[in-house]
């Protein structure tokens, strides 16, 4: 999609900075919506179908995709709709652990996974990922083991990001099974945020297929660029008694997500192939023009986690997201809120022309 049209968008990605800044920060995609989504939403609006959502279709549509893409049978599982993934994570916590129960995250991590539980009154502990950005299962076992007993109630909750944002790591079945084993042993509940699952370049393992007693949140929002028409499903073996104030979906969003899951498989395959090309463009560029930047191509997501620890500007100064924006007109996401001040996160779900222009701006500051 051309820059001129993207600049007409009013979403946060395109309205936060002025016309001299290229925005490759928040996780929105610079693509047209898939035609079946446009058609389904347009027809729904034309027939005035904007009442309360009846709760049908989305669960089945997701089940078909889960079976086809991941061999995951959700038929026997319980599901409940929530307005979005993050409200679902907090509502799930509220339903399955006691107030004040410690919440653990593998850090660096998508900031709201730490912030929202903290704001809801749960003490949050960060357990560092390994240097390769993977779950450090030994460190997690130790952290789980140190949680004080709460009688029959869970001692803690671990918020799994699967695939992991920002490193783009896809956790393996063996890692998930081991995580399940240590969580079970220490009475820790696992809640998985699987919002990026459909944007995987490697085989994806749903947490619930490896950890029977986990809870998992899914949404088509990231894969089909529907964060402005949002809905998510919370999946679990047994029903989760989440607050009725949260347990509902929005009709138009449900129609959009159902059309995405039912009719847009080929669109998604094309998008994944385009993203694979962008990932290659980005990887080649960094290796060739800015090898000082630490970078491992993500196994999932359209987010690149760039390590600027070794990079410095012309006057030897540290390069941050603010420096890149002010000096090169490039808006990336600062790593600070994720838990790593040396990193920035770049969203490569854009055209090759915009991506190349952004990379040239980046290299002009760090090289
Ligand atoms: C890992 C992760 N979880 C949740 C969200 C936000 O989801 P929602 O808007 O459905 O709360 C994002 C958005 O980028 C994300 O990357």
TrEMBL record:
Q: List, for all copies, the residue spans of the domain called Aminotransferase class I/classII large.
A: 87-362
What family does this belong to? Belongs to the class-II pyridoxal-phosphate-dependent aminotransferase family. MalY/PatB cystathionine beta-lyase subfamily.
Sorted alphabetically, the keyword list is:
Lyase, Pyridoxal phosphate
Which cofactors are required for activity?
A: pyridoxal 5'-phosphate
Species for this entry: Rarobacter incanus
Kindly give the PANTHER family that the UniProt entry links to this protein: CYSTATHIONINE BETA-LYASE-RELATED (PTHR43525:SF2), PROTEIN MALY (PTHR43525)
Please name the Pfam families in this protein's record.
Aminotran_1_2 (PF00155)
Which GO molecular-function terms appear in the entry?
cysteine-S-conjugate beta-lyase activity; pyridoxal phosphate binding
The yes or no answer to whether the keyword Lyase is present is yes
- Keyword Lyase present in the record's keywords: the answer is yes
- Enzyme class, top EC level, equals lyase
Per the UniProt entry, the Enzyme Commission number(s) are 4.4.1.13
Spell out the protein name for this chain. Answer: cysteine-S-conjugate beta-lyase
